[in-house]
Amino acid sequence: QIWRPITATFFFPVGPGTGFLYLVNLYFLYQYSSRLETGAFDGRPADYMFMLLFNWICIVITGLAMDMQLLMIPLIMSVLYVWAQLNRDMIVSFWFGTRFKACYLPWVILGFNYIIGGSYV
């Protein structure tokens, strides 16, 4: 069943308890993916696509090893992590004006996903 890794990446169970988490994660995917495309990978769309493909393959292998069924949030976190490492010293603000260095952003988002969704994956 070759389609399973692909559908596991694009599927997210949206319900009354997870709808807000889904919207927030889509926002992060759009925001930081577009920042990567116009920043570090400006004029190099093939390099950006290769980075996404490499991250996806690593996430699928890790998902198989850890029996993870949903891979959308790990893919979003990988894009966010790459952006944060390329912009380590940039000051970012999170909800309610909390400000910190970008290198800590993936860990803050991971904690946020855990608080909102009850799980970090």
Automatic annotation (TrEMBL):
Keywords: Endoplasmic reticulum, Membrane, Transmembrane, Transmembrane helix. GO terms for cellular component: endoplasmic reticulum membrane. The chain crosses the membrane at residues 7-30, 50-83, 104-120. It is found in: Endoplasmic reticulum membrane. It is a multi-pass membrane protein. One of its GO terms (biological process) is response to stress. InterPro entries: DER1 (IPR007599). It holds the Pfam family DER1. Its main location: endoplasmic reticulum. Functional component of endoplasmic reticulum-associated degradation (ERAD) for misfolded lumenal proteins. May act by forming a channel that allows the retrotranslocation of misfolded proteins into the cytosol where they are ubiquitinated and degraded by the proteasome. Belongs to the derlin family. This is Derlin. It comes from Probosciger aterrimus. The lineage of its organism: Eukaryota, Metazoa, Chordata, Craniata, Vertebrata.
